[in-house]
Amino acid sequence: MYLALLSGKNIEMAKEEIFSISSGFKETKLDGRVVVFDSRKAPDFSLLGLTHEAGTFLGKNIEEVDFTVFLSQNIQISVLNLDSEQNSLLFSKKIGEFISKKGLKVDFKSRDILRVYLTKGCAYFTKPVFVQDKKEFAKRASPKRKFFMPTSIDSMVARALVNIAGAKKGVTVLDPFCGSGGLLLEAAAVGVEVFGCDIEEKCVKGTIGNLEQFGYLVTAVTSDAMNVKKVFKNKFDCVVADLPFGKSSKILKDKQKLYKEFLYYVPELVKKNGRVVIGCDEEKLDYPKKEFILENKFSIYIHKSMTRHFFVFKAMS
Hints:
317 residues; elongated; Rossmann fold; VC0802-like; 8-stranded mixed sheet; alpha/beta; 2 domains
């Protein structure tokens, strides 16, 4: 079994992202930001955007821990207090006393780590296998790109969205409103073949430049999203898009019309059983129910006047 420490940006989205890259995911416990789950195959946690840490789950009680999973007799104790009234230092001391009785030694320089998460009513013991490198995502953040757009999605959220869409090596991903290429950049980072278009030529050039900046290739063209089928001809495994909204949109008066037209057009762009992930500022969307199943919806608070809503659809035909 495994344990993951999820981002607080959206716990349900973070959990869904793990599910999307796992084989036979089965949740056994969700406690705040801590999720314990089973999977037939160990997930590649390095692909995730909204998981901060992960490890092999060893139990909820120190007496349950199988210390044979550690390679040495020297163990580092690391306690993270998430929402517990317990004193972390005193708790660490008690663990140290227990493992000393087992003939083991507490060594804060050891690479063998017993990681413990304290929540309001429980303790979770793990052997770490993954710690997110936030600096890697920071390198690709919107302000660090050659072509900058202030409305671009946070890189960690973008990674989660493309994972939920089903992005993985060997599949194709389309963003028909590519903007500065933030979604395509994260899709390319997991080894996906990426395609994009935008009605503004500067955005297309910016997307190409941004992906080249980080060593990725993208096929991007200047085109109205409603002409994508004519441009690319083939259907895609996944479609991801952050639709024009708020002050960034030049078509505020026709926004609702655009959203509806695109959602009724997009089934022509995605393969059967493919996923379409749409971001916008609307809480509800009119979509073709004969063509799509709405699998999930997530909302992320940006600031007092903006919340982004993300819809996950599965194509039926």
